[in-house]
Amino acid sequence: MTSRANHGPPSLGGVPTQMKFARTKSIDAILATAEKKSLHRTLGAFQLTLFGIGCVIGTGIFVLTAAGAQKAGPGLMLAFAIAGAICIVAALCYAEIASMLPVAGSAYTYTYTVMGELLAWTVGWALILEYAVAASAVSVGWSGYFTGTILKQFFGMELPAYLASAPLALGGAPGGLINLPAVVIALLVTWLLMIGTTESARVNAVLVLIKVTALTAFIVLTLPSGQFSTANFNPFLPAGIFGGFGSGVGAVGAAATIFFAYVGFDAVSTAAEETKNPQRNVPIGLIGSLLFCTVFYILVAAGAIGTIGGQPIMGPNGIPFPAGSEELARQCALPQYSGALVCSNEALAHVLRQIGFGTVGNLLGIAAFVALPSVILILLFGQTRIFFVMSRDGLLPEGLSKIHPKWKTPYVVTALTGGAVAFAAAFLPVGKLADIANAGTLYAFMMVAIAVMMLRKTEPNRPRSFKTPALWLIGPATIAGCIFLFFNLPFEAMLVLPIWGAVGMLIYYGYSYRASHVGRGIVEAPEDLPLA
Questions:
Q1: Of 358, 434, 500, 513, which has the maximum CB count within 10 A?
Q2: H/E element holding 460?
Q3: C-alpha to C-alpha distance for 443 and 484, rounded to whole angstroms
Q4: Is 309 strand, coil or helix?
Q5: DSSP assignment, residue 531?
Q6: Given a cut of 90, is residue 480 above it in pLDDT?
Q7: What is the CA angle 59-197-146, rounded to 5?
Q8: Bridge partner residues of 495 (DSSP)
Q9: What is the 3-state secondary structure (H, E, C) of 204-229?
Q10: How far apart are CA 114 and CA 120, in angstroms?
């Protein structure tokens, strides 16, 4: 049953909820709410791992290899290692807290129970930015393979520039007006997600297999290739390790950009409420997918740079032109850079064509064309589930959490999210979208690490099917790593988070603060659960 206090909101988790900075929801109440209005549990450990692999191995390799090389040159390999190391410590924190709270909502839900509603709102609002913008970035990356491989290589056709790219003023190609293929794929994936989670997972399993096969073929053809030369790695760090505050270049700047491709493990945790035996399966999906993908990232980057090189195009000041910038687009239009890795919209297929494996390169392009939608699918999946649980808590209109009677999915919020993703994909280039997405990602990961450390103090006896080893080291390392990468994003990307956060605060105090179920004293109690 649902209880309502007669004399103000109740106290949950030992914190008076009338204190507007400390409204909290106990772990028992969160689990009870999830059971009362829950999503259908259909996913196992294998499907969760495939979900993570499907999201992580995607744009970061198929598309952002070029943008990362422009920022770091051969140091891209180090960038993948840096980003992977920070993700591994973050994943260990996620694994513990997700096994304790196997419900939808990810970092938002975790923050709600530990640090209160206001901070939970900021995390949920940041996650909305993260997932939606990242899905837009992958849609743009898919568009590059569609126009470069499917249309040009197989049909000898070229889409008019004004239909194939964002406007030059926003970092797109000369003559660009709208990225129509990116819009189409975003809307198609939205439709698939509205049909149902199980159907989406089955399609994703096939796409992941195609993608991993394609990347394995790439590694086999490039690393032992006669054209592989260690000379291509010299200089290894043409822009240095640190490019400087707000520059977004250097190995760390590249790590900050490609970090967003690792958010697959976060999407795994958002699926906890739809997972069978989540205490066991969520940690497996989180850590297994991340370790598998990190190895692939480094091997593929080594193969690409070792065969055709990956030196950035430098500006007159000896600093690489910003990836996705108008200046770089103009340089890439010059004949001497026609074969450069950093100028390609379909980096891996381009590498194979350059070393004489044109047919295999085209097949890899087809694989990316077919498989990248799985990344969009997982990102949209995660984003809609964040919306769903915030709506279920009353912080967003409850109509958003409406479940379709036949499909059993939150179809209203899925449709709205898909429309916003398609709009962003239409007008922004992939590099800028990736940087923007990272601002929200890094904030959310940091808050999860803080929540895990606090729960060790406040809930020491609660069962944990997975405990983060050496939390005294892993927790602070996650926090420091996230802050470190955030301040190595381009300056304009760093500005996005506080601006987006300010908009969120207006919504919170204009609507959510008053509509909140916890604030109104509406709480699901554990004893409300039906008896088996």
A1: 434
A2: none
A3: 11
A4: coil
A5: P
A6: yes
A7: 30
A8: none
A9: HHHHHHHHHHHHHHHHHHHCCCCCCC
A10: 9
Burial zone of 156 (CB within 10 Å; 0-12 exposed, 13-18 middle, 19+ buried): exposed
Q: What is the largest CA-CA distance in the chain?
A: 78
Confidence of residue 185 (pLDDT cuts 50, 70, 90): very high
Q: Length of the chain, please?
A: 532
What letter represents residue 126's amino acid? A
Range of weakest confidence among 132-146, 398-412, 472-486: 398-412
Q: Peptide bond preceding 16: is omega within 30 degrees of 0, i.e. cis?
A: no
C-alpha distances out from residue 213 to 205, 292, 370, 407, Å: 12, 14, 12, 32
CA angle 161, 166, 168 (to 5 degrees): 85
Could you give the 3-state DSSP secondary structure of residue 525? coil
Query: Residue 530 has what DSSP assignment?
Result: P
Cα–Cα nearest to 239, from 65, 485, 84, 75: 75
Tokens of 284: 């497996």
pLDDT of residue 482: 93
In this structure, which amino acid lies at residue 155?
F
In this prediction, residue 17 carries a pLDDT of 39
In one letter, which amino acid is 245? F
pLDDT band at residue 5 using 50, 70 and 90 as cut-offs? very low
* Distance, CA of 184 to CA of 24 (rounded, Å): 41
Distance CA(89)–CA(93), nearest Å, equals 7
- Number of H helices and E strands in the chain, helices first, is 22, 4
Tokens linked to 423 = 């709009």
